[in-house]
Structure formats: structure tokens, C-alpha cells
Amino acid sequence: MTATLSVRGLSAGYGGVTVIHDVDLDVDTDAFVAVVGVNGAGKTTTLRAIMGLADIFGGTVELGGESLVGARTSDRVRAGLALCPEGREVFPSLTVEENLLTGAIAGDDWTGRADALGRVYELLPRLGERRSQAAGTMSGGEQQQLALGRALMSGTTVLLVDEASLGLAPVMVDWVFEILGAIHASGTAVMAVEQNIRISAVATQIVVLEQGTVTDRLEADEVGSGLHEAAKAAYFGTGGT
Ligand SMILES: Nc1ncnc2c1ncn2[C@@H]1O[C@H](COP(=O)(O)OP(=O)(O)OP(=O)(O)O)[C@@H](O)[C@H]1O
């Protein structure tokens, strides 16, 4: 299977400080890769580095065989990457539809924007029902769905998701993970960083990140008890005991 997003030897951080070291990651066109790790493992920094939002100290990022080294974040979005950030960052006083439109590519004509809205509403019908509601009046789970929809407005081929489960009640976590599964099933490759092990229900591959380094990888057919060992290791640094 072709790796649509290919990361090799990526080292990145902030200022002069390296946070992630020599990270290799592949996201195939039909993959849902979950990157699991504890607080501070470097999950957010990995996503930010792929988007060109952290300082890059070495390594390469390719999308569809094209190098993104040195590319601006806006060009990475045009190429097909999009980031759904930690904490959702919706605009509370704007409506659902206005929030979604902020995710469209600047300069796209109205037809392009309307098409993108139509695709998002088809995939995430709750957003269509609430299109005129102020985003700040929605539940946390609904706001997470909105943040995901906004990230899909730019013709996204690989969706990067930062801790979609953060701050949600367990029932909402499962709902949001089901939405991620639906996005993946619709043909968008997904790479989601998570602390919540329940992402295993929808992911096809698990990558464990510890102290800025990839320490384990599991394919979907190894998921099950193997996943839980890896997840435990990521949580507790115990090697799965
Ligand atoms: N803007 C920044 N400037 C300096 N250091 C940062 C910055 N953002 C993160 N760091 C540091 O980088 C390290 C990794 O942080 P990162 O947010 O990537 O981890 P994480 O795995 O996403 O953690 P969390 O689950 O808490 O979000 C931490 O030591 C953090 O303090």
C-alpha cells in the first residue's frame, strides 16, 4: 500500500530544544494511525512539525511523493494535510457554518466552498442540523465534531487529529471516535494522537511515542491484547505490566 504521508528521521522542537527525535511514520491512503503516548511524549509536537508549525532540526515529510521540506503551512494545507487542534479552538460566537467556512482554502470560490460544506454535512449530519447555532452553545462532543468538520473543509487527504477525546465524558469519547471512524471509512486517511486507549476500536495501526521517540508499532491484526500491552507501556512506562 502506498504511504501517502511519509515522515523520515523527523527531529523538531522549539527554540533550540529538540522535543522529537528521528521519528519515522507512514500513513497509507487507507490507514487510520493512532499515535499513543503520555503527557509530554511529543505527540502535539509531531503533528505541529508535520504541519510546519514547529522548528525542524532534521528529517523529511512527503505527501503523495512530493517533499514538503521548507513548505509553508498554507501550502501543506493546499497539498491535502489538515490539523484538528487540541482543545478544538472553535470560534464560540460564530455559527457552526461560519466556523466551517474558516476551514475552507482562502481564495476558493463560493462553489468550491459550498461543495466542501455539502461534503461535511453529508458526513457529519449533526453539523448540518446545527448550522445556524453559535458554536459556543454546543456540547464539548459537538464542538469536537465541528473542529473535525472544519479541518475537512480544505480537500483533506490526510487528517491530523490532536487528542479529540480531551475533556470529554466516556460516552462522548466513544461517539467522537465513531466519528473519526466514519471519516476514515469515507476515504480520508487519519493520523490521530491520543492518550485514550479506546481509539483502538477504530484505528488500523498503533504507534507508541515515548520521550519524543517511536518505541513500538502494531498493525491492525496485532491489535487486541497486543494493543493493550503497548498502550499500558505508553501510559505507565512499564513495558506493559
Ligand atoms: N511552544 C513550546 N515551546 C517550548 N516547549 C514546548 C512547546 N510546546 C511543547 N513544548 C515541550 O515539548 C515537550 C512535548 O510536548 P508536546 O505537547 O508535544 O507533548 P504531548 O505528548 O502532546 O503532550 P500532551 O498530551 O500534554 O499534550 C514538552 O516537554 C513541552 O513542555
Automatic annotation (TrEMBL):
Keyword Transmembrane: no
GO function terms (MF aspect): ATP binding; ATP hydrolysis activity; branched-chain amino acid transmembrane transporter activity
UniProt cross-references to InterPro entries, sorted A to Z: AAA+_ATPase, ABC_transporter-like_ATP-bd, BCAA_Transport_ATP-bd_LivF, P-loop_NTPase
Stored Pfam families: ABC_tran (PF00005)
PANTHER family assigned to the protein according to its UniProt record, in alphabetical order: HIGH-AFFINITY BRANCHED-CHAIN AMINO ACID TRANSPORT ATP-BINDING PROTEIN LIVF (PTHR43820:SF4)
Family: Belongs to the ABC transporter superfamily.
Protein name in UniProt: ATP-binding cassette domain-containing protein
Organism for this UniProt entry: Actinomarinicola tropica
Lineage: Bacteria, Bacillati, Actinomycetota, Acidimicrobiia, Acidimicrobiales
